[in-house]
TrEMBL record:
Source species of the chain: Halalkalicoccus paucihalophilus
Principal localisation: membrane
Keyword NAD: no
GO annotations of cellular component type: plasma membrane
InterPro entries: SLC13A/DASS
Topology class, membrane: Multi-pass membrane protein
Record GO terms (molecular function): transmembrane transporter activity
Keywords assigned by UniProt, alphabetized: Membrane, Transmembrane, Transmembrane helix
One protein family per Pfam: Na_sulph_symp
Transmembrane segments: 20-36, 48-79, 91-113, 143-164, 184-212, 224-247, 281-314, 334-358, 378-404, 416-434, 454-476
Subcellular location: Membrane
Protein name as catalogued: Sodium:sulfate symporter transmembrane region
């Protein structure tokens, strides 16, 4: 094996890398889509829209070029191929409040980590006087609590990885022990589930709420909590219990303060030092933002207002917690991908492409003649199949959810329930390490294997299916 100049591992030097193959495939898709005549029943406009869609999809899935460039290229193609009258229409996705809302949330999440407030909370929630099994339960509880004011599941994973390693040393266990494996499963697979509880809990929830508000009906921050907190808590609890049961973590070893001199075992129970100036500021500002989201849901205040207010305060002269460097370090590639995808979806809607795709699939699957539960089952299976190819659940939801909702209308399914079900299922399904950032980090830094990642991903998918069924028929009808 060797590394090419982009740092990719090449199994055989004469075989093309995934990035090279992806770029070549994307170009083939583009050339064929532009030059070949459209099939019978398809207009040239619809063919070109689908061409841009699949061209962008191949580039994003293979990461042939950076997300930022592939996203801008896709928008340029919409205009160049005359699928929009103006470039402004082609770039309409970047005018979405979601684009700016995610940008501000990324800044706020980075600010929490920057002042080490997340690390302080994490350490404060752990106790040295516990057994491995109790520590697993404590870790699951702490991750859940932290998710309510720290949106990023990846940030929570990074925060707790060193804590898990130190606890493994405290117990005198091997780094490949069942305790360590169970802990990394919690950090990777179970941890992101908690982010679905709140509308502002992470990219998955934010994107889903945006699509629901624009295509189904308005859902407030509080209503989202009523609909999603109970199902999410039950799913999270079942997944956490499953992680402990599958790995059979023992409950006999106890922590001695002398077992880790100078480490976590020696100082975790000590009185924490006072909050620093920056930690106090970030804590107060974030609590204010959460309060703004709650109050705003009753008075119709856009969710971006409290977020941008918090960001501005943290960037004010004399505070300077959010700086120019922090803005440069934001995940611009993900933001540009989301904006480009919304642009493409907008053109798909205005050109009738979505309707054409829906009509084409209904020729093979008669959704209108199927019982609702069968139609919904098929749609959710379709969502899982598509989700496997994406490196983030957020990107999968952006692409899958609008199409699923189109089919849902034909089958007569409740669009709100269907949207929430897609979120729960996609947010709980991780078959490959790259499917979720938190899983990828835990896989890279922990002892997990590809088989374990796939296996527990299947477990959480099945649990999600059970929760969706119970919510659809028992819980959601009671609260809507």
């Amino acid at each position: 094996m060797r590394l090419d100049r982009f740092g990719e591992t090449r199994i055989l030097p004469f075989l093309p890398s995934v990035r090279s193959f992806g770029l070549a495939l994307a170009l083939v898709v583009l050339v064929i889509g532009i030059l070949s005549p459209p099939p019978a029943g398809m207009t040239q406009e619809i063919q070109l829209v689908l061409t841009v869609f699949f061209f962008a999809l191949v580039l994003w899935l293979t990461k042939a070029i950076p997300y930022t460039l592939s996203s801008v290229l896709s928008v340029v193609l919409l205009f160049t191929l005359e699928l929009t009258d103006t470039f402004e229409e082609a770039a309409i996705g970047y005018a979405s409040s979601l684009f700016f809302f995610l940008f501000v949330l990324l800044l706020l999440g980075n600010a929490i980590s920057k002042v080490e407030l997340d690390d302080r909370v994490a350490k404060g929630l752990l106790s040295s006087q516990s057994t491995p099994r109790r520590t697993i339960r404590s870790l699951a509880s702490n991750l859940l609590i932290l998710s309510f004011f720290m949106p990023s599941a990846m940030a929570r994973t990074v925060t707790f990885i060193p804590v898990v390693r130190r606890l493994t040393t405290v117990y005198g266990l091997d780094q490949n022990s069942n305790f360590t494996r169970s802990s990394f499963i919690l950090l990777g697979h179970v941890n992101p589930i908690a982010s679905m509880a709140l509308m502002t809990g992470g990219g998955m929830a934010i994107i889903t709420s945006e699509i629901i508000n624009s295509t189904v009906r308005a859902v407030t921050w509080v209503e989202w909590g009523i609909l999603m907190i109970p199902p999410t808590l039950v799913l999270y609890g079942l997944a956490a219990i499953s992680a402990g049961l599958i790995y059979g973590v023992n409950d006999t070893v106890t922590v001695e303060e002398s077992a880790d001199e100078g480490g976590l075992g020696a100082d975790v129970d000590e009185e924490p030092p006072p909050l620093t100036r920056d930690q106090r500021i970030v804590a107060v500002v974030m609590l204010g933002a959460i309060l703004g989201w709650v109050i705003g849901s009753f008075i119709g205040l856009p969710t971006i207002v409290p977020a941008i207010g918090a960001g501005v305060i943290l960037a004010m002269p004399g505070i300077d917690i959010i700086t120019t460097e922090d803005i440069r370090d934001v995940s611009w590639g993900v933001l540009f991908l989301i904006g480009a995808m919304f642009s493409i979806l907008s053109v798909m809607e205005t050109s009738g492409t979505l309707g054409y795709v829906v009509d084409g699939i209904t020729q093979y699957i008669a959704f209108s003649s199927l019982p609702t539960w069968q139609a919904v089952t098929i749609l959710l299976i379709l969502a899982v199949c598509i989700r496997v190819f994406f490196s983030t659940a957020s990107a999968a939801i952006v692409i899958v959810l609008p199409i699923i909702l189109e089919f849902g209308e034909i089958s007569g399914a409740n669009s709100l329930y269907l949207a929430l079900s897609v979120l729960i299922l996609i947010g709980s399904t991780t078959f490959l390490p790259f499917n979720t950032s938190a899983v990828l980090i835990s896989f890279d830094r922990g002892p997990l294997t590809n088989r374990e990642v796939f296996g527990f991903g299947f477990v959480t998918m099945c649990l999600a299916a059970v929760i969706i069924s119970l919510s659809w028929f028992l819980y959601w009808p009671l609260v809507t």
